[in-house]
């Protein structure tokens, strides 16, 4: 449910100024509205809708673009913007056609976000040491400790 708290030019309600020692009601209202808007389950569902979107569902069996109000929810949710303009496509014919410009949300980015959330791949490279390398590292560390002790005794 949209809230009026975040619309530009919406003035703060009277009495919303912070008085020392009292809780800031205005911030509590904003936090509550944000919490309602940023439901983690809903965010995952929306990312999933974008990740599994199929643009073929925007067209009917004849290849014509379906009206926006006839699109299923999951198809409409994958649309970033729709622009409909009337322009002359063929120069000199004197007729104008409707041109539909459709942009969809970034599908690879949605898939990437879901994979990160589900820990299906790691961003960090983990290097494992072989037993021989571990032995060399421990020898180096003990050698450094020995040199440090000798320097302290000399000083």
What does it look like?
There is one protein chain. The protein is α+β, with helices and mostly antiparallel strands. The chain has two domains: 4-12 and 23-125, no CATH class; 126-155. Helix content is 42%, strand content 11%. It has helices spanning 25-37, 40-51, 73-77, 107-117, 131-154; strands spanning 79-87, 97-104. A two-stranded antiparallel ribbon has the order 1-2. Helix 2 (40-51) crosses helix 4 (107-117). The longest helix is centred in the last third of the chain and has 24 residues, at 131-154.
Percent range of helical residues: 40-55%
General shape: elongated
Tally the structural domains: 2
Distance between the termini: 72 Å
Structural class by sheet pairing and helices: alpha+beta
Short description:
This protein is an alpha+beta fold and 155 residues long.
Topology at a glance:
Elements: H1 25-37, H2 40-51, H3 73-77, E1 79-87, E2 97-104, H4 107-117, H5 131-154
Antiparallel strand pairs: 1-2
Helix pairs in contact: 2-4
Which features characterize this protein?
155 residues; alpha+beta; two-stranded antiparallel ribbon; 2 strands; 42% helix
